[in-house]
Amino acid sequence: MAEFVIYLLVLVGLAYPLGQWMFRMLERERHFGLENLIYKLTGVQPDRQMGWREYLQALLVFNLLGLLVVYALQRVQGMLPGNPLKLAGVDPYLAFNTASSFASNTNWQAYGGETTMSWATQMLALTTQNFVSAATGIAAMIALCRGLLRTESRQLGNFWVDLTRATLTVLLPLSVLLSLILVSQGVPQTFHQPAAVQTIESQSQLLPLGPVASQVAIKQLGTNGGGFYNVNSAHPLENPTPLSNFLECLAILLLPAALCHTYGRAVHDRRQGWALLAAMLLLFVPLTLLCMHYEAGNWEGKEVRFGEAASALWACATTAASNGSVNCMHDSLTALGGFVTMVLMLFGEVVFGGVGCGVYGIVLCVLVAVFVAGLMVGRTPEYLGKKIETFEIKMVSLGILCMPTLVLLMTAGAMLVPSARAAMLNTGPHGFSEILYACTSMGNNNGSAFGGLSANQPYYNLVGGLVMLISRFWILIPVLAIAGSLGAKKRVPESAGTLPTHSPLFVVWLCVVIVVVGALCFFPALCLGPMAEHLRYL
Amino acid sequence: MKPIYQRALQDSFRKLNPRKMAGNPVMFVVEVGSLLTTVLWARHPGDLFVGQTALWLWFTVLFANFAEAIAEGRGKAQADALRKSRKDIPARRRKPDGSFEEVPSSELRKGDVVRVEAGQSIPADGEIIQGVASVDESAITGESAPVVRESGGDRSAVTGGTTVLSDWLVIRVEADPGQGFLDRMISMVEGASRQKTPNELALNILLASFTILFLLVCVSLYPMADGAISVVVLVALLVCLIPTTIGGLLSAIGIAGMDRLIQRNVMAMSGRAVEAAGDVDVLLLDKTGTITYGNRQAAEFVADGVSLAEVARLASLASLADETPEGKSIVTLASEKFGVHLTPPEGAEFVPFTAQTRMSGVNLGDEQIRKGAIDSISNWATSPVSERLKEAVDEIARKGGTPLLIARNGLAVGVVYLKDVVKTGIKERFVRLRNMGIKTVMVTGDNPVTAAAIAAEAGVDDFLAQATPEQKLDLIRNYQQGGRLVAMTGDGTNDAPALAQADVAVAMNSGTQAAREAANLIDLDSNPTKLIEIVEIGKQLLITRGALSTFSIANDVAKYFAILPAAFAVSHPELGRLNFMALANPQSAILSAVIFNALIIVALIPLALRGVNYRAVGAETLLRDHLLIYGVGGLVCPFIGIKLVDMLVVAMHLA
What we know:
The complex is a heterodimer. By secondary structure, chain A is mainly alpha-helical. Helix content of chain A is 64%, strand content 2%. Chain A has 18 helices and four strands. Chain A has a two-stranded antiparallel sheet with strand order 1-2. In chain A, strands 3-4 form a two-stranded antiparallel ribbon.
């Protein structure tokens, strides 16, 4: 409990200065040397402003290229250097799934970590995607902020500049810092051959080493979650000490929390940033306490080194943010503990959520809340002085419909396809929970796995790959369209009749909207899974 | 049964036509669900549970249709009454040679000139080009007292279907047949030309999205539950989840909003205008008639060299023949304050007011008494006005009043303070507007000093003095540039450009044709303060929509707890623990949820038609109260309601 309080205090304490700093990095007036060099080499005109369609186009093209590169690298890794374990090329279904997974910032790992991917693949393909997929989220968020701030303008900034800055000046320095701290705690960062060690039972074991610290740092910071080792941050080399555990767990929520403040700063109303963060905490804290309560005493599937509380906290943080790294096995959580992790994802990854996408996701919820609340105070709804009209509501609906559609249909499909259904390890409600969790994780670009389910097979690889891509990129269409449409509008001056969107009342209302929309969509599914399991054994 | 209900009942069935239902995605889904369950029942007629479910689903659709029909019905009754005054009547059209010919009114075209005598109906909308007459406009305003209409000025417009009571008029026709004011009014009240307003459209999209979501939830539930849930139960669940309460009442709310305007004798030329009224940030109000009573009234006398009573007597004498309200108020003040009761003395020779002399008075033998504007009396007087009186004059002007000098035999002896009287209660109204976040701006032709004084007294936020039509237009444009929505009232032709520019423009029905065409709302009572009521109706409309949407979605929680344990009673008996309401059995639980869902529409029809009460308080307070009533209430109410229905269902052995 004390750990949780300290965790929250440090998180909230660091988020504000970090958020301000990120704003200054992203919205600097001038480009610095390395940046200019990159623009020159790539032929980008950094001062050219883009409209929302052009911005979206650049974003999609860039990520499509990333997808193709990751796919290709996996297929041909056997022929490339940087492959000390002599791993063969990855099969097409799995390669597609992994490519989608890393392009969409999901980092669902159907593959077996160090035993499937060569160093070259891990570094060139996966680690690069860890950076740029997170940077993509930040870019889209900052474009949305510009739309909210600017008046009668169709310009949302330049995607290439935002991408470069988010990578070079935000994510890179932070992950270098975290890598160094992790190395100090004993996380390997090396190109040495696997170490041969004698175990206590006098058997010899081959320990794969590699550039672990750098990948762990960015997978935690960039809400990626794809670990170097298959058991992720439960592995002693990924997460050796209590301090490393605390910092890695902190890094999960740090950027999503700080970006709330970046948002507040970027729309010139810092109270809005506080309001978003408050709403996230208002949902996160009680659910985490619930999870910790139910996990107390449940040692199955947990690292003894971390204990139940720190494991429950990590489980909640990683599902709240669309991170997906784990330090315990979620399959072994109690029914209600698992329920909490699924609920946190099913909110649509807006409670912290992914880097950048958490903020733009919750802004869509804010627009729904503003629309209904605005009606209830008798005015055409407006947010930050911009009128929310038919076009915006159309786009919000398009964005909000996407995730539940994907998750529900993929789950239903998994129950209907015999091979997908047979992938359950358990029967009954728990077996259903395994499928629901997997579909939820992919549909929300989370990437954590419940375990139990044998997910490396065509249905999950193929459908899951598509679901991850759609879930990640579909929502960007409405988000950027809204940015474009709001940017072109005038700002209505505030008056006594304006609904304040930073007041405690509105924050509570926003939480209610998020919970009600999430709960109404998934209540039946959750009843059949974790709820039934819990009630059955009462 | 009242005919209006009878007609609404028939219409509820007529509206089952799928092509009409398609405009309302929520209710369309319910209708499809009803059909589906009916087919299922037809295959197993013995299954009374399926039969009852089907029946109540049909009721859900019918209740929603009934709500809409009853809202429309009120308008239809009014339209029928209006139609009676629109019958074809003979008109006397002027031929190019100046003589008149008799033609039916349906042959009149824009630009034709007709002559209407006393006792005849006016054949078409038009502008008076000659004559003065009293006109009975009760056919459209409901007001039986006749009004005066005359050429020139701001009372020159006449409406087809009204009747000339005295004298005659020559009118230039301004509307082709079928497009007159009466025709537009009929189609408005009937809802024939009613289009969905932007906000209604946006809400519809949101509701449609919820419907799609719940459709997905129910469709995917079948494989998720391994087919352990019957189709009837799935349909019941779907209908209970989708926002039928707001979906069923949405169009009724819109129609009822228009109807509330009509009941206040305001004609909205589009639904958009009503909605925009709720959003208005700035109200431009004409001083005269809106903020102050149209006429100035005497408030005080000032004397120099003679007693106050003497000034009162002289002023009263000078005003005896003055029939203007100002003149009468002088006589009243003199009698009330100084007991001066005069009858016109013998041999008095009254001097009437003329535009040249700008004073009036009376000659009693050699005593010449005059009252008038400062400069005209100064010119008439033989000795200069004393310093004391000059001071008094300045003082009155500074306070926003109009000073009149009283002079006897070439010497000014006193001043009458004519005061612009601010309407009682207007200040409180402005406070309310301020609480609503609306800025009030007074527009007047007065000089800035006078305007400032009245503005302060009335409590408006800002004023525009010595306003010209151009300045008015600029003021509106400036506010709009800053993102504000501006509302104004107007009646004169010179108001037309500003009316056209304003977002919400209310024209007085007594105003000119140009003003009426530029406006998007017309006030049949010609009461400028009505703008405030229009704003409140606009807000009420939005609030009702928001409140019922919240209520509708909040209801779903209880319905889940009623239906899910029942639906999975066999396959997942452990979910029975979620049956908090202790509903008797699975069938009664599902039936109760469906019945509650249908009945709540009926229960809320009065609220939808009346509208949620609007109070002029800040947005935050308003939101809190409405969330408590419709959000928390919407959460709790169905738990109680479904439990009660369940008890009834069991008691009646329906399940």
